[in-house]
Write a structure and sequence with these properties.
The complex is a heterodimer. By secondary structure, chain A is α/β, with parallel strands linked by helices. Chain A has 2 domains: 194 residues, Peroxisomal Thiolase, Chain A, domain 1; 141 residues, Peroxisomal Thiolase, Chain A, domain 1 (3-Layer(aba) Sandwich), CATH 3.40.47. Helix content of chain A is 32%, strand content 24%. Chain A is built from 12 helices and 14 strands. Chain A has a 9-stranded mixed β-sheet with strand order 5-4-6-7-1-8-13-12-11, sandwiched between helices. Chain B has a domain of 96 residues. In chain B, 18% of the residues lie in helices and 36% in strands. Chain B has 3 helices and 8 strands. At the A-B interface, helix 3 and helix 4 of A face helix 2 and strand 7 of B. The structure holds zinc ion. The site of zinc ion has 8 residues of chain B, from loops.
């Protein structure tokens, strides 16, 4: 990519629903050892969207925060992409709802993206291309999900609701972190899928680890190191997709990255796996604390499968451009529900 | 069905952005929009205006048995919210602890589903409010500064 034409993140926003259910409460219903499950997954609880929340409402709230906290004029947004595996409609774009709610349209490019947990970062790549080629002033990419696990399935312990919005721009006085390079690693790997009329996704159990998550996250990250001639030591913060609290820690180990570099962006232990929101929320949490000159590495992962890797450098604007409420504070606003209320809120009760 | 669809579609600016109007003569806000200003009649001049996201609870009630379409909600709070400059709106309160819902509490507009009539029908979105900590003077100033831009 051209070195002269700088572009990067000018605004970001996160939305996490208030409701939480603990892993122990889910385990109680399925008669499993909650403490054991919780320790194995590296997470205690997950965020649950209320019955009047879906990926569209989460996308709108995350975007509103990005626009309001960073003073972005919505009408100047030239493209809106919403990445999700739980779009409210099978056919009818979530991006249209977001565009009207933000009053960004009607003169705006818009589309929904789907690539399991990495659809939001795919949108960031598209926005980056459009901004760098001067086709648009700002590009908004959102990763938002109200992920569902089949009742009793292993995924039910981690599948959570939440989202993040990232706005890409090229104004020097607005860029918080330039995106210096991005690359992807993609293969046809059937580790997780959901067919057209199926309510819940299917997954390949243990198959989701080695040939799926690790192969792609490590593959994309090593590709980034090679293409940018950098190494793990060059980065101050690293964010990986976090389907649970353990995988990203193992990936960091494999790449020789110290735990303290991934800690700030490791949010799944507090809210569960927000799918398309996961690595983007992690990045936003890192942006909450970064200092000028620091470097960030982000690698997302989407089943199916692929990883997008990003190399970013924090600018002088970092000190003055921050979200009103940091992610790590946001995760503390919560209210616990039991399994019965959980299935009611997530529409899992079949009333015939 | 199609009548309801068109009606809901026409109300999108009102429901998504709380688009009302403002009389430049008497400085009064209206939500929903009015055709003429009842204060100024022919002297009035109405312009489109988005209502602010932050308001204050004027009065509230706990609904024990909701009307048709709200059967799933159980108990919920309805509040009359003062949006400043004269406009008031009746809205559901979400994501708030019971003890925080009181007269004078600051509330913020949230984007939520307001009805999913049937499984195959169109989803309606709109505003609901949640109780937030009152803004500090610094935050009020910062907000004014942002709005100037
Ligand atoms: Zn008037």
């Amino acid at each position: 990519m051209s070195e002269k034409q700088k572009a990067g993140i000018v605004a970001y926003g996160v939305y996490i629903p208030r409701l939480r259910i603990t892993v122990e409460e889910i385990a109680r219903v399925w008669e499993k050892d909650g403490k054991h499950v919780s320790a194995g997954l590296g997470l205690k609880e997950k965020a649950v969207g209320a019955s009047d929340e879906d990926s569209a409402t989460i996308a709108v709230e995350a975007s509103r925060r990005a626009i309001e906290d960073f003073g972005i004029t919505a009408q100047k947004i030239g493209a809106i992409y919403v990445g999700s595996e739980s779009h409210p409609y099978a056919v009818k774009p979530t991006a249209t709802i977001v565009s009207d709610a933000l009053q960004a349209g009607p003169e705006v490019m818009a589309a929904d993206l789907e690539f399991a947990c990495k659809a939001g970062t795919a949108g960031v790549q598209m926005c980056l291309g459009l901004v760098k080629s001067k086709m648009i002033e700002y590009g908004l990419s959102i990763g938002a999900d109200t992920a569902q696990g089949k009742p009793g399935d292993a995924l039910e312990f981690t599948a959570a609701s939440g989202g993040a919005a990232i706005i890409i721009g090229d104004k020097e006085n607005e860029i918080i972190a330039t995106i210096d390079h991005t690359c992807s690693y993609t293969t046809d790997t059937p580790d997780f899928w959901r067919r057209q009329h199926a309510e819940y996704p299917e997954h390949g159990g243990r198959f989701t680890g080695e040939p799926a998550y690790f192969r792609h996250v490590i593959g994309a990250t090593k590709l980034m190191f090679k293409q940018t001639n950098t190494k793990a030591e060059d980065y101050d913060y690293v964010v990986f997709h976090q389907p649970n609290g353990k995988f990203p820690v193992q990936a960091a180990n494999m790449l020789g990255i110290e735990f303290k570099k991934i800690e700030q962006g490791l949010i799944t232990p507090y809210i569960g796996n927000t799918y398309s929101g996961s690595s983007m929320i992690g990045l936003c949490s890192v942006l909450d604390v970064v200092k000028p000159g620091q470097r960030i590495l982000v690698t997302s992962y989407g089943s199916g499968a692929g990883s997008d890797s990003f190399s970013l450098t924090v600018t002088e604007n970092a000190g003055k451009r921050k979200a009103d409420v940091p992610v790590r504070e946001m995760v503390n606003e919560k209210s616990y529900i039991d399994y019965a209320l959980y299935v009611k809120h997530r529409g899992k009760i079949n009333r015939g | 069905m199609s009548d309801g669809l068109a009606l809901n579609w026409r109300r999108i600016p009102e429901r998504y952005a709380m688009k009302g109007n403002h009389c430049t003569n008497c400085k009064q806000d209206y939500f929903p929009s009015r055709m003429i200003c009842p204060n100024c009649r022919r002297k009035g001049h109405l312009v489109s205006k988005d209502m602010p996201r932050i308001g204050k609870i004027v009065s509230y009630t706990k609904v024990m048995v909701g009307p048709s379409g709200f059967e799933n909600e159980g108990n919920y709070y309805l509040a009359l919210i003062d949006l400043g400059s004269g406009a008031k709106v009746l809205s559901q309160i979400v994501d708030s602890d019971e003890q925080d819902i009181h007269i004078g509490a600051s509330v913020k507009k949230m984007f939520r589903k307001i009805g999913e009539v049937e499984e195959k029908g169109a989803i309606t979105y709109g505003y609901k409010f949640k109780v937030v900590k009152p803004l500090t003077e610094d935050q009020v100033e910062a907000l004014k500064e942002k709005n100037k831009k």
